[in-house]
Structures are given as C-alpha cells and as structure tokens.
Amino acid sequence: MGKISNQAVLQKLTERFGSAVSIPSEPFGLLTFETGKEHIIDVLTFLKEDPELKFNYLTDITGIHYPEKELPIGVIYHLHSLYNNVRVRIKVFLEERNPVIPTAVNLWKGANWMERETYDFFGIVFEGHPDLRRILNVDEMTVFPMRKEFPLEDPNRADKKDFFFGR
Amino acid sequence: MQIKRTFSLEDKLMNHPAIKSSEQLQDTMTLNLGPTHPATHGVFQNVLEMDGERIVSGVSTIGYIHRAFEKIAEHRPYYQITPLTDRLNYCSSPINNMGWHMTVEKMLGIQTPKRVDYLRVIVMELARITDHLICNGILGVDTGAFSGFLYLMQEREHIYEIYEEICGARLTTNIGRIGGFERDFNDIAFAKLRKFLKNFPPVLKEFENLFDRNRIFIERTAGVAAVDAETALQYSWSGPILRACGVDYDVRVNEPYSSYEDFDFDIPVGTNGDVYDRYMVRNEEMWQSLRIIEQALEKVEKEPKGVFAADVPEYYLPPKEEVYNNMEALIYHFKIVMGEIDAPKTEVYHCVEGGNGELGFYLVSDGGRTPFRLHFRRPSFINYQMYAPMSRGMLLSDAIINMSSLNVIAGELDA
C-alpha cells in the first residue's frame, strides 16, 4: 500500500538512533516501536523532517495505563506520512508517580488538544505545553479517570448488586 | 417641576462592582458565545474578546456532553460498544457503527463477503449524504436562507426511512453486527433506495441552484475563514475541510476498507480553503456518494443473494430459531453472550472516512471479552481546536458561519 516499506522506515530509524528505538513490531502492518522520553522529540522531528520519510501528519496522541508494568503509563503517537501513505506508531512508557514527557506542540500545533486530553485522562504532564489544563472533565476533578484504578462507578452501590451475576 | 436626581450616573457606573476603578475600563468587550446559543448548533462555548464586531481573541471550552465512552467501553464486551459509537457523530452514525465493526473484524481476522462490503458501502454513503446535507443546509440557514435547509431535510427523512427498513432505528442506528448485518436488506429497503436515487438528484440540483451562484451566499462565504493547506495539516485537519484546502487525503482512497477499491469515484478538492470551498466540496461529495451507491447497487445484484454476514459462528450471534432448536447454535449463543470467546492479544488502529474526517479506532486487547483500551480519534475534536485561533480578527458573524462550515458535532467533540 505505502510507497515506502516498514523495514525501510525502521532501518532509517535504527541508523539514526541505534538502540533508542526498541521492540519493533508490525501488528496488522502498522510499524510500532518504543522509545524513551529523552528521545521522543528527536524521533518525532526526524520522522517529520526527513526528506524521504516525511511523516507530516500527526494522526493522534493518546495514553494507556498498564498497572502491572514497571513503567505503567504509556503515551502513544500515531503518525502518518501523507506523501508515502505509511503510518507509524510510537510508544513511550513513563513512571506512574510523575509521568513527564516533552510536548510535541512545537512540531504540530494540533498536538495541543490531544495532549490536553491525554493529560486530562491519564495525568501525563507534557513539559513545555502552552496551556496544559483539563479539557473534557471539570477543572475541579482531582483524579485521572482513565487510569485503571479508577472505577467506572461507585462500587458501594447496593442497588446494583445482582444475586446471580454479581455486579 | 424639575426632578432631582439623588445620584450621578457616572458615580453609579464607576462604583459598580464589576468595575473597580476607571483604569480597568477596557476597550474590548467579553462576549460569551454559548454554551447554548441558537447559532452554535450544539453545546459549544467560546469566550470571545470583542473589539466592536471583530474578535480579538477567543477561548473554547468543550466537554459539556462528555460521557466517558472510552471508560465505559473498557467495561463492555465488543458487541455492546456499537451503541456507544452511534452517539459520537449522530448525524452519520452508520459510518461509526461500520467503522467499529470493521475494527473488531480486523482484530479477529474476519473476512466479510463482498456482498456485505457493498451493502456497508451503501449504508455508509447514505450516512455521508445525511451528514453533508445537514452541514450545508445549516450553512444556508446561518447565511440567512432557510428554504434550502427544508428541502434537504425532507430528503434526509427519506434516508432515515431506508435506515428504518434496514435496522429499525433512525438516528442512533446501531446498524449491523461484528461480521456483517443482523438481517438482510428487505425488498422495501431496496425499493426505497432506488426511489431515493431517483428523487434526490433534482433536489440537490435545486439546492445548488439556490446557493452556488447566489450573490448573498457568495459574499457571506467566499474568502471567509480561508485556511492554507500547510496550516490545516499543522492542525491535523481531515475530511472535507482539509480537502477544501487542497489536500487530497481521503481514507477511502488512501487505505481502502470495505472494498472501496472496487468503486470508481472522484475526490473533490478546493483551492482556497474558505467556507465557500467547504460548501462546494461537501456538495460534490454528495454527488460522488450517489455515484458510489449506484455502483454498489449494481454490484450487490451480481453477488449471491441472501448473504448478509460472514460465516463466523464464534463471533456472530445465531438466529433465535436456531438457538432454540440447535445445540451448536445454543452453545455459540451462550459463549458469545457470556463472553467466553477470547480475543487475540494485540492492538489495532483502523480508520474510516467519517462525515467530518478520519474517524479512527485505536483498540488494545489483552485477550479478554472487553477492550483493554479503546481510543476514538474523533475528527470533530481535532478539527475544532483551530476554531478559536482562526477566529482572531474575524467578524463575529463570519465566525458563526465558520463554525457551521466546520460541521463540529458535539457528540463527537466530547465523546
């Protein structure tokens, strides 16, 4: 489908960044790899500005929470090269206590609200973000509701108990 | 007799609690546009600093109808998430439904028969027409022409009648299942579809005649809120508004899903990226959608009759008669409903061309009956963030029609 193969993208990345780009995989043909938070802006800049790759379109930024992992909070970037019609997924994992990652607003202005949404739901702080406030939830909220420890509803409600099926 | 004033107007103004001292008198005015303003068509709030009629700066506040779909989806089995997707972009909910089904099918490795693909294309293109109808009709209303909107609403009603024949519902359709449709399209649905294909083009033509060369409409829209392609890409725009800026990015062509590669259609692009171009792109897309539906109807006739779902008994609910009379069907029914069929541990990103742009589903599965994480890439959310920055320097009345031409749907904006 794309004009440039996933292997070629990965090879260029490993040439430039070496072991900073790790655990590559291709679930359903979409090149996925991990990197560290100290490299993420360099990786994004490289992908965006390399004259062959030209990943010029930021599809999405979102977060994920794996409570069991050593580095439980993940930030997931989806990039798209409209020139080559290739997508790539980048993951960065952060610690739970103080998840901080540099912002991508300087590369794509559209990252602004995506990062605000990610902060709102996962508490990931994007360093250098011009306006890091909650966006969908109320400002007074003290929790980050998409983290796994946050229950969907109050577990103490008696009226929701079912004799046969539990809750 | 001279009435004596016991107060001086000036004093009263100066001592008003809102104005502490004369130094704080500003020459701009703060205007609260929304959240429930008749001109915003949804729950959007923008706090605007106005200098006369011009907008100096603005701050958008969103989230008024946030319903935590991503959190709810983590607690629901896959087949129960479809009704949630209905409520994203409720002007074109079948596209959202189909996008979700296709995401799960991609994850499970289900190959749908061609006839299912073509039927899905028909439904999705109908949904695209309803979406664009609403947007362009509303644009007309906001520029002061009400009748075009009414002509189009009548046709939307006919599309909703087709939905009714297919699935029973009208607005939040919940069409289809993972693997196909829950039932075949009946003859009335096809008859209504053909009738619509015959009756709609003259109405759309009449609508175009009313607007395309209308002096008032052109003066209100041409050159208003023009965006260049570079800025649009910087803000990750997608859909008709990106194509109006001249970027020919359409998911249906870039990454064909549901057999879109079998169809012959054009992608209209604009040049200026202003409101008029967005209007023209949407109108042309409706013509292209009609072309696609006609082709799809032809193709459906060539396919074997009565096929409306893939043959995947592990994931597709069997018909009720079989559940009561057939042991295998009963077992599958039980397993599906009680969630005993595990999904593979994987992650998948699938996107479809929604009414407003690239509607993406990022699904992470840990093997259970529910998604581990589901994220919707909602085009309205991403398109809307440019609204406040681009309103700077605009007239208030232009900002209003700019908002209706972006076609931001509150349900999709807030998820």
Describe the structure.
The complex is a heterodimer of chains A (167) and B (415). Chain A is of the alpha/beta class and 167 residues long. Chain A has a single domain (6-154), classed as 2-Layer Sandwich (Beta Polymerase, domain 2). Helix content of chain A is 20%, strand content 25%. Chain A has helices at 6-17, 40-49, 111-122, and strands spanning 22-25, 31-35, 57-65, 73-81, 86-94, 100-102, 125-127. A 5-stranded mixed β-sheet of chain A has the order 1-2-5-4-3. A two-stranded parallel sheet of chain A has the order 6-7. The N and C termini of chain A lie far apart (46 Å). The mean pLDDT of chain A is 89. Chain B is mostly helical and 415 residues long. Chain B has one domain (69-414): Cytochrome-c3 Hydrogenase, chain B. Chain B is built from 18 helices and 6 strands. Chain B has helices spanning 9-14, 69-73, 82-86, 93-108, 114-142, 147-167, 187-211, 215-221, 229-234, 240-244, 251-254, 275-302, 320-325, 327-338, 379-384, 387-391, 396-406, 410-414; strands at 29-33, 45-51, 54-61, 345-353, 358-366, 373-377. The longest helix of chain B is centred in the N-terminal third of the chain and has 29 residues, at 114-142. The interface between A and B is large, with 36 and 39 residues.
